[in-house]
Amino acid sequence: MIGEKIKSLLIDKDNQLVKSADEVAVVGTKNRLDHALLILTTDKYSLVPVLDEKSRMQGLISMPSIMQAIMDIEDVHFEKLGEINVEDIMDKDYPFVYEDFELENVLHMLVNHAFITVIDEERTFKGIITRSEILKGTNRIAHEFERLYDVTEKATTDSVK
């Protein structure tokens, strides 16, 4: 369990942990790969959420998945970018939490993922929690904890060693 003092430093009051859906670059399931490639390269992302027409989370699309879709053993077929829909190649196995998430679960998930999608019960996309925001909070803890709190080492006994 994460203590309240650590949690308060990890998640700054002025800086919400969840980046809201309207601030996140996304693509639609019906978009073609050329559009997804444009979003990924323009915004310099390696991975973006894929939403359906009702803003429900459907998967993730990445640069490597796009390249795999247009390559064969001998060549890259760039003309396929305008022919293939995002939904045909998106990764449907994506990390997510609901809006009432436990911070501890998020921390465990972010070890293996750059971001976690936040959805509601109908899978409506609400935003993302990024590893970068957690690292900012970790940096805050490293610099502020001992300035704000008196820290003393607990006495150890031979049985605890």
Automatic annotation (TrEMBL):
Keywords: CBS domain
Species the sequence originates in: Marinilactibacillus psychrotolerans
PANTHER family reported in the protein's UniProt record: CBS DOMAIN-CONTAINING PROTEIN CBSX3, MITOCHONDRIAL, CYCLIC DI-AMP RECEPTOR B
Gene3D superfamilies in UniProt: CBS-domain
Pfam families reported in the protein's UniProt record: CBS (PF00571)
Official protein name in the record: Cyclic-di-AMP-binding protein CbpB
Family annotation (SUPFAM superfamilies): CBS-domain pair
InterPro entries per the UniProt record, alphabetical: CBS_CbpB, CBS_dom, CBS_dom_sf, Diverse_CBS-Domain
Stretches assigned to the CBS domain: 17-76
